[in-house]
Design brief:
By secondary structure, this protein is of the alpha+beta class. It has eight helices and 15 strands. Strands 5, 6, 7, 8, 9, 12, 13, 14 and 15 form a nine-stranded mixed sheet that branches. The protein is globular, with a radius of gyration of 21 Å.
């Protein structure tokens, strides 16, 4: 843990620059890129509040506190973890991620990740593609979100996929659609949430809708897939941007948090308790947020072929849908 107060000659400078200056003075051995990662991950506080924006300019006298989490093994090891492979060629691999699988090593999850599984399946050639810690990875899903993911197996595929995902489908071919079970019924059949997302000012592990200058631009398009009156809806959500917890935060923002989401939808516990035995059992069996990456489409970065993959609801979400269909209040 390190702390310092912003001096008169430092006031008005970018937060990441101030951290770099302090880290250099204290010989902490932290690069500016690493310090920006600490900000993005919520490990930096200014006057007690989590600072999510490296461009922020603290005032004179502001107290800056930051912590460096324990390092994880810089070189993930191959592990024989089964993968549900949807498509594979010499350039890339598409998998259907199960619940509970962490995408890449991080503090608390140094092994047993998708990266470990890919290193075993694809061989040593994967390790240098896209960085040691996240070889081949160009996007991610939360540990408890299921569904389709693509990873690169070659440098040219990695560059092409990274460009496609950076564009978020605005000009290119990317399609990313999720099925989400949410509480309550919307008053429209479709809509858009356009609201910036950043770290929650008081809870580091959470994201929140924030002012545009305090977070990152985020847009989610939603449409009703099926209604379960009077309590819930199955929505199809299409991402125009790809922010951490984006669908979960945006759905909670419009008053329709994901079923089973104890971070952004904990206030709906009483609604769950009022359902019948079958619905309560289905929610308990789910044990996670009801979110599934159902569609993934993109232009193959090497061959140019248009690819589109679909994944059916996994058994836990399918069971929830069946119970909600049968529910009669």
């Amino acid at each position: 843990m390190s702390a310092f107060a912003v001096g008169p000659d430092e006031a008005g400078q970018r937060l990441d620059k101030l951290l770099a200056l302090h880290a250099a003075r204290e010989e902490l051995g932290l690069s500016r890129t690493r310090l920006q990662e600490l900000i993005a991950d919520g490990f930096v506080r200014v006057d007690g509040a989590v600072a999510a924006n490296p461009n922020a300019k603290p005032k004179e006298g502001a107290r800056v506190l930051f912590a460096v989490p324990p390092a994880v093994d810089a070189t993930p090891l191959p592990e024989d973890i089964p993968l549900d492979i949807v498509f594979e060629d010499d350039e890339l691999i598409v998998i259907d991620k199960p619940v509970g699988l962490v995408v890449h090593p991080a503090p608390g999850h140094a092994s047993g990740t998708l990266v470990n599984a890919l290193l075993h399946h694809c061989g040593a050639g994967l390790s240098g593609i896209g960085g040691v810690r996240r070889p081949g990875i160009v996007h991610r899903l939360d540990k408890d979100t299921t569904g389709l993911m693509v990873a690169a197996k070659s440098e040219r595929a990695h560059k092409g996929l990274a460009d496609i995902f950076a564009d978020h489908g605005r000009l290119g071919s990317l399609v990313r659609e999720y099925l989400a079970g949410v509480w309550t019924l919307p008053d429209r059949s479709f809509g858009t949430v356009d609201a910036a997302i950043g770290r929650h000012p008081h809870h580091r592990e959470r994201m929140a809708v924030v002012r545009e200058d305090k977070g990152r631009h985020a847009v989610t398009h939603w449409a009703v897939e099926e209604k379960f009156p009077p309590v819930a809806t199955l929505m199809r959500c299409r991402l125009e941007t790809g922010r951490t917890h984006q669908i979960r935060v945006h759905m909670a923002e419009i008053g329709q948090p994901l079923i089973g989401d104890m971070v952004y939808g904990a206030g709906f516990k009483t609604k769950a308790a009022a359902l019948d035995d079958a619905c309560r059992a289905a929610i308990a069996a789910l044990g996670r947020q009801a979110l599934h990456a159902a569609s993934l489409g993109f232009e193959h970065p090497v061959t140019g072929e248009e690819l589109l993959f679909e994944s059916p609801l996994p058994p836990d979400m399918a069971g929830l849908v069946e119970a909600l269909r049968a529910y009669r209040p």
